[in-house]
């Protein structure tokens, strides 16, 4: 038990050092990207720094698998260089028992990441995106000039712009009958979104279509029972990766229940699970580095680990994009790279042990 705690402590120190090196590096790239927009609208240098700081939890989650790999290789490599692992092996401690400590630390890391993913990273990232959009006078749109589009079985809704969480402008509603023929087109200059899903449309133009004519009417106000809840509207304006797992589950269910394409959101959900699996895979890959050549230099191990980390990152991105392009099952596209790495790590470990 004493050896277990000692190894776990060294691995924790290695993870902290890896985080201290990698997180500022990636954040520096984020800051450079934001500094290009300084001077546009009311976006200032301090806003760029605040944006970068608010993105720290998200960046940590994204690079956590590589932190796990480099941190564990550095920690166990240092023990090997100091001949401590040799002493443990001479005392009868098997490589399997030594490996349990890093895996336990990895499980703790995954629990910490899950907490960040649910309660901190999405909220901070969404706030950062919102503040930046306001400062740059940008609107929350799914496409430049296209607005926000969504539908259910009988209606198509387009929101030109969300002025704030409870008010929209340039709203269009297309209503279809059971034979999918257009029955009515409603355009409103503004829409006030109420908590009971009732929208109060103002400055409304209504066109009703029949076989023989188009009836046009106008109204100052019109009440419309929306199929969208306020939280669904907010979700539509956010990047899929910025949503928490519970938000993604709810939104995927909403999209599928209304017959819409949910692949990008389902992939984002499964990639969050895949990130945890990838962290375990990286920890498992770090073991053969150490036990394969226990007296080898630490610097070479770190270089090889870094190269593997880059290769894994590219593999993960290729699988995700190919999955969307080829309409693969999101779970397969998100989890396949991690599953392949775990299988390779197991085969490598069997040869080493």
User: Are there runs of 5+ residues with pLDDT below 50, and where?
Assistant: 139-144
Number of H- or I-type helical stretches? 11
Principal-axes geometry comes out as: elongated
Radius of gyration: 26 Å
Structural class: alpha+beta
Instruction: Give a quick account of the main beta sheet: strands, pairing sense, barrel closure.
Output: 6 strands, antiparallel
What is the number of independent domains?
A: 2
Strand order of the largest sheet: 1-2-3-4-5-6
Total beta strand runs: 6
Keywords: Cell membrane, Membrane, Transmembrane, Transmembrane helix
InterPro entries: LptG, LptG/LptF_permease
Subcellular location: Cell membrane
Membrane topology: Multi-pass membrane protein
Explain how this protein is built.
It is a single chain. This protein is 62% helix and 17% strand. β4 (182-193) and β5 (198-209) form a beta hairpin. The two termini are 21 Å apart. The protein folds into two domains: 2-133 and 264-352, no CATH class; 141-235, no CATH class. It contains eleven helices and six strands. The protein has a six-stranded antiparallel sheet, with no helix packed on it. It has 353 residues and is of the alpha+beta class. It is elongated. α10 runs antiparallel to α11.
């Amino acid at each position: 038990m004493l050896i277990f705690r000692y190894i776990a402590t060294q691995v924790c120190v290695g993870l902290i050092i890896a985080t201290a090196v990698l997180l500022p590096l990636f954040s520096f790239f984020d800051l450079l990207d934001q500094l290009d927009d300084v001077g546009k609208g009311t976006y200032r240098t301090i806003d760029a720094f605040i944006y970068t700081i608010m993105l720290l939890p998200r960046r940590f989650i994204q690079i956590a698998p590589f932190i796990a790999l480099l941190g564990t290789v550095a920690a166990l490599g240092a023990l090997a260089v100091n001949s401590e692992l040799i002493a443990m092996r001479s005392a009868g401690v098997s490589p399997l028992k030594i490996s349990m400590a890093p895996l336990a630390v990895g499980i703790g890391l995954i629990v910490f990441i899950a907490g960040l993913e649910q309660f901190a990273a999405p909220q901070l990232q969404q706030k950062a995106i919102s503040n930046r959009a306001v400062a740059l006078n940008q609107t929350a749109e799914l496409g430049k000039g296209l607005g926000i589009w969504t539908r259910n079985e009988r209606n198509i809704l387009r929101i030109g712009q969300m002025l704030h969480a409870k008010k929209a402008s340039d709203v269009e509603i297309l209503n279809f009958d059971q034979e999918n023929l257009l029955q009515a087109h409603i355009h409103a200059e503004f829409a006030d979104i109420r908590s009971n899903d009732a929208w109060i449309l103002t400055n409304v133009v209504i066109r009703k279509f029949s076989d023989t004519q188009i009836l046009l009417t106008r109204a100052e106000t019109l009440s419309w029972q929306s199929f969208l809840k306020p939280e669904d509207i907010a979700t539509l304006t956010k990047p899929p990766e910025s949503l928490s797992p519970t938000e993604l589950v709810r939104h995927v269910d909403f999209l599928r229940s209304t017959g819409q394409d949910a692949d990008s959101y389902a992939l984002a959900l499964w990639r969050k699970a895949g990130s945890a699996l990838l962290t375990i895979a990286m920890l498992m890959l770090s073991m053969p580095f150490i036990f394969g050549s226990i007296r080898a230099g630490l610097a070479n191990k770190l270089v090889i680990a870094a190269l593997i980390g880059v290769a894994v990152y590219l593999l993960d991105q290729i699988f995700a994009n190919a999955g969307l392009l080829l309409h693969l099952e999101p779970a397969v596209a998100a989890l396949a790279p991690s599953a392949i790495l775990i299988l390779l790590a197991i085969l490598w470990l069997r040869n080493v042990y």
